[in-house]
């Protein structure tokens, strides 16, 4: 059976590739299992060198990978280049890890006690279509650094850069079987990885609904699980904020990647006294967004990923929706949706409560710090969020009070290679990136030596 990969900007078939099923998953798991003993035995310095070689090879291919990702995921080429840069940086960052996976020595009676961080074995990595190769690197790089072997399942909508990665890893000198890619449906290939007795851990990024099923499925074999799930993050603008800066930054924080971003600050909470001024500034910024061909260097926002996503996003903007600002989008083929701001909204409205995963923001007015923080926390999600204020003490109070894993003050950026990323509440469990990710790809072993 083959899989037709669609280009979202044209809705045309971009490539036909073989579609993997459960048998291919089993073969990939067997290959990863066979490769594990030798891979974990590679000396720390040599494993570090191989990860640096992989980063170098990815960097050499950066422009090709960026163009492939831009076309397949429908993202602006400038964004795609930035993402490929992050992929390279992520492998470089974790290349330093094999030589720094330190244990502890613990004072005990009658001997010496020490701990080791041991690799888990074969890890199954299931990634979504919104940031295909970037999210794969957040998982692959620490997993490889810690000595695990991998079966990576990209989303069926965007498998092309992951398949390239499998080839590039071999070119860079990684042994056969260390990094395996299976491109097939989640309901078959993803499910098989979750059930497979030889898979020690599943790391997943995607919807909260599928994540819930993965957590339940993993329980049968007591697999370790990392889940990076949905979000409905708040961008809280207090009356004492630098309003121009907050309004100028707000659109890219929700319309970046056409809103298909788990970190999207899709609930913009504005303190009532500055609501009108903020909306005027926001309108200017939203109307200036250039939506169009992902391969055009001037493009800032591309199409949605699929016809299905277009239909879902549209359902949040019915005829009678309170559309305050509507940007532009191309007509014709492709899955286009204009940047849209709904205002004023209540936090209980469907568009304010559910993750839309498209270029639709809601603006919710609030009165005072307490109410602003209460509304921000009134969601099942807890991934990221922003606070805009010139009052430093308020910024710190808000940062501590918000129930989210990642917070930015006077900024909307929340993802860095060197810092931990992940969610509170139903946005997930575990952390990726930074020093914390390694914990999720190792188990601690305690050794006592009687003296
Ligand atoms: P999914 O959660 O369905 O997909 C994410 C990944 O999981 C894909 O690789 C998918 O495979 C796989 N998968 C699907 N079903 C299973 C299963 N039963 N067992 C194991 N793996 C599975 O996201 P969707 O693509 O359906 O997007 C729907 C919504 O999810 C979006 O609108 C958005 O709200 C949210 N989402 C959130 C993301 C995030 O970054 N937090 C990323 C993507 C989506 P395949 O697609 O090949 O079938």
Describe this structure in words.
The structure is a single chain. By secondary structure, the protein is α/β, with parallel strands linked by helices. The protein is 38% helix and 19% strand. The chain has helices at 22-41, 44-60, 62-73, 77-95, 132-145, 160-171, 186-195, 208-218, 243-255, 275-287, 307-314, 350-353, 368-377, 392-401, and strands at residues 2-7, 12-18, 105-106, 111-119, 122-126, 149-153, 179-181, 201-205, 224-228, 234-237, 267-271, 323-326, 340-342, 360-366, 385-388, 408-409, 428-429, 442-450. Helix 6 links the parallel strand 6 (149-153) and strand 7. Helix 2 runs antiparallel to helix 4. The longest helix has 20 residues, at 22-41. It is globular. The termini are far apart. The mean pLDDT is 98. Bound molecules: NADPH dihydro-nicotinamide-adenine-dinucleotide phosphate (NDP). Residues 126-130, 153, 155-156, 185-187, 190-191, 194, 205-207, 210, 213-214, 228-230, 262, 355, 357 line the site of NADPH dihydro-nicotinamide-adenine-dinucleotide phosphate.
Features:
451 residues; alpha/beta; seven-stranded mixed sheet; six-stranded mixed sheet; globular; binds NADPH dihydro-nicotinamide-adenine-dinucleotide phosphate
Short structural summary:
The protein is of the alpha/beta class and 451 residues long. It contains 14 helices and 18 strands. The model has no long low-confidence stretch (mean pLDDT 98).
Range of strand content: 15-25%
User: Regions with pLDDT < 50 over 5+ consecutive residues?
Assistant: none
In spatial order, strands of the major sheet run 12-13-14-11-10-15-16
Shape descriptor: globular
Helix content: 25-40%
Bound molecules: NADPH dihydro-nicotinamide-adenine-dinucleotide phosphate
Let me know the average pLDDT: 98
Biggest sheet overview = 7 strands, mixed
Given helix and strand content, the structural type is alpha/beta
- Please tally the helical runs, counting DSSP H or I stretches of 4 or more residues: 14
């Amino acid at each position: 059976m083959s899989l037709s990969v669609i280009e979202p900007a044209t809705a045309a078939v971009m490539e036909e590739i073989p579609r993997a099923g459960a048998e291919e998953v089993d073969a990939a798991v067997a290959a990863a299992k066979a490769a594990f003993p030798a891979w974990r035995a590679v000396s720390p310095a040599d494993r570090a060198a191989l990860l640096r070689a992989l980063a170098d090879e990815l960097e050499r291919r950066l422009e090709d990978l960026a163009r492939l990702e831009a076309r397949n995921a429908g993202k602006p080429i400038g964004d795609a280049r930035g993402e490929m840069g992050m992929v390279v940086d992520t492998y470089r960052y974790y290349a330093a890890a094999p030589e720094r996976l330190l244990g502890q020595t613990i004072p005990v009676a009658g001997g010496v006690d020490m701990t080791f961080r041991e690799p888990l074995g074969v890890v199954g990595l299931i990634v979504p279509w919104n940031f295909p190769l970037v999210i794969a690197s957040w998982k692959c790089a620490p997993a490889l650094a810690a000595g695990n072997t991998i079966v990576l399942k990209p989303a069926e909508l965007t498998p092309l850069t992951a398949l390239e990665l499998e080839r590039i890893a071999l070119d860079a000198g990684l042994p056969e079987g260390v990094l395996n890619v299976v491109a097939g449906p989640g309901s078959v290939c993803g499910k098989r990885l979750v059930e497979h007795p030889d898979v020690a851990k599943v790391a997943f990024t995607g919807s909260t609904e599928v994540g819930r099923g993965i957590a339940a499925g993993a329980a049968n074999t007591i697999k370790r699980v990392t889940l990076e799930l949905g979000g409905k993050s708040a961008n809280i603008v207090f009356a004492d904020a630098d309003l121009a800066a907050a309004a100028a930054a707000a659109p890219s924080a929700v319309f970046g990647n056409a809103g298909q971003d788990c970190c999207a600050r899709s609930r913009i909470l504005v303190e009532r006294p500055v609501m009108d001024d903020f909306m005027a500034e926001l309108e200017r910024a939203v109307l200036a967004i250039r939506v169009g061909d992902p391969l055009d260097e001037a493009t800032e926002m591309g199409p949605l990923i699929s016809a299905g996503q277009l239909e879902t996003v549209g359902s949040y903007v019915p005829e009678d929706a309170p559309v305050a600002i509507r940007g532009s989008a191309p007509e014709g083929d492709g899955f286009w949706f204009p940047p849209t701001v709904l205002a004023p909204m209540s936090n209980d409205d469907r568009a304010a409560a559910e993750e839309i995963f498209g270029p639709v923001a809601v603006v919710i007015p609030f009165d005072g710090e307490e109410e602003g923080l209460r509304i921000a926390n009134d969601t099942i999600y807890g991934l990221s969020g922003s606070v805009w204020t010139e009052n430093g003490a308020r910024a710190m109070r808000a940062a501590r009070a918000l129930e989210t894993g990642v917070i930015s003050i006077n900024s909307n950026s929340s993802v860095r290679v060197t810092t931990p990323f992940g969610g509170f509440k139903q946005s997930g469990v575990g952390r990726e990136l930074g020093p914390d990710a390694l914990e999720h790809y190792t188990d601690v072993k305690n050794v006592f030596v009687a003296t």
